[in-house]
Amino acid sequence: MKRVGPVRNSVEEGERKKSLVDDAYEAMRTAIRDSTFAPGYQASEQEIANRLGMSRTPVHEAVIRLQGDGLVEVLPRKGILIVALSPDDLREIYDVVIAIEGRAAELIAALPQAERTNTAKVLDDWTDEMVAAEKRNDLPAWGNADSAFHTALIERARNSRMSRIIQTVNDQSHRLRMLTLNLRRGLDASVEEHRRIAQSIRFGHSAEASDAARQHRIRARDELLPLLTSYGLKHL
Amino acid sequence: MKRVGPVRNSVEEGERKKSLVDDAYEAMRTAIRDSTFAPGYQASEQEIANRLGMSRTPVHEAVIRLQGDGLVEVLPRKGILIVALSPDDLREIYDVVIAIEGRAAELIAALPQAERTNTAKVLDDWTDEMVAAEKRNDLPAWGNADSAFHTALIERARNSRMSRIIQTVNDQSHRLRMLTLNLRRGLDASVEEHRRIAQSIRFGHSAEASDAARQHRIRARDELLPLLTSYGLKHL
DNA sequence: GAGCGCCATCTTCCATGCAAGCATGAATAT
DNA sequence: ATATTCATGCTTGCATGGAAGATGGCGCTC
Question: What is the domain class of A87-178+185-230 according to CATH?
Fold first, then answer.
């Protein structure tokens, strides 16, 4: 019986009081993100509890949270199902991201100049990192820098609800992202589009910032979705 | 000890199998919405369990869901706190609604004409209802018709994640809505703005539909927020 | 051989018991 | 009178047992 995630370490617990529910939640969330629990996999709470070295209760409560996040589905008296993403789910997720990121960029571009300049610099730095990673053919680093760009874009809007929404759909689509990272190599306009977003923010052009952020996601969607269907991927 | 909500009726249960957790969740959600549980109120799981005629477990699990919805906060070993909305929360909620409803209107306006016509008619019908209610000085009916308009707008976009997001922020701000319904009487441009949204959808003008939906919410926000601060309402 | 029904088993659901932490207030010392 | 300390009660966190339900296999019947 292999342990899925880290369990309460009784020796060095000097940092923070985390409940077993939090442990179980993080462990399962991670396991789902990196496909240790693949979609379609059906687990039982008892089994997971054994792996994590705890009783069924905290696992059960963590599952409730994961269900709220849309990551699992609990089939009454059948077990826990790791949900798969359909093309329709992808369409939904993209529209949510387009809406939220567009508004976030718009809001940032309406902030005072000092903050705009600072944010634009941070965004440009991450874009620089993407360029550097591309030169090194370092795909993981490229993906991380791209993620960091979009995370920074949301965080700078200072809207915890927007952050949470994006976090949720990111969790849902994380597996897809890992997959698509390998598909689209080279043919990507992300860098120029990121520049346009940062520049619009720098100059305080709200409408253009919103449009740039939206078009960036729309273009990425229109490139990816046909690719997936051509590969015959019906769910993941 | 007064019962807060309906409890499992053992006699007529011919409709659907609802778990006790669902019962507890709905009962508490309703109690929070209609201020039976006012913000700042601190309850204990045992107390709520007694009121609902069940044990602590389903209440505890329902509380986890409500916490995910941002309606309550559980203070470890102190109790359950009904969260209050700060002006900053209001700002966040409005921006989420502006983003989502704007995109929803944009998407609907991009649908085939038959569906657009149908949706526009439904929206106009609800706006008619608002006008009629205003003539009768029937404020609750006006509020219901307005809610129905916005619910229809979201539902027609056929995006379950958007629906869920809106549902969540609606739950959070429901008390505020009930309050503001009484504040702004007469001085409201909602009807004309609703017409413009419906008309943009009817003609398939995506950009204008998005703008109309966004401006409608922005205008409402800019009217309401100063009103609240002038009344000295720091939280609710 | 095919189909039907029953039973064993595995699952979640819920109740309850125990433990641990924190706040409150009383009681005592200064 | 005031401050401090300690005990008590109330809270959630977690474990565990029993119950209800669903499913799959196995045996029986035709």
Answer: mainly alpha
Evaluate if residue B157 carries a pLDDT over 80.
yes
Q: Return the closest nucleotide (C1') to the Cα of A74.
A: C12
Contacting B residues, span 143-182, partner chain A, CB-CB under 8 Å: 157, 159-162, 165, 169
CATH (residue range B87-230): 1.20.120.530
Would you list the domain boundaries of chain A? 20-82, 87-178+185-230
With a pLDDT cut of 90, the percent of chain B lying above it is 73
A56, closest nucleotide (Cα–C1'): D15
Q: Determine the Cα–Cα distance for residues B224 and A157; give it in Å rounded to an integer.
A: 22
User: What pLDDT is stored for residue B17 in this prediction?
Assistant: 61
Quote the tokens at residue B60. 């505890």
Predicted TM-score (pTM) of this structure? 0.91
In this structure, is the CB of residue B42 within 7 Å of any atom belonging to strand C? no
Q: Which CATH class is domain A20-82?
A: mainly alpha
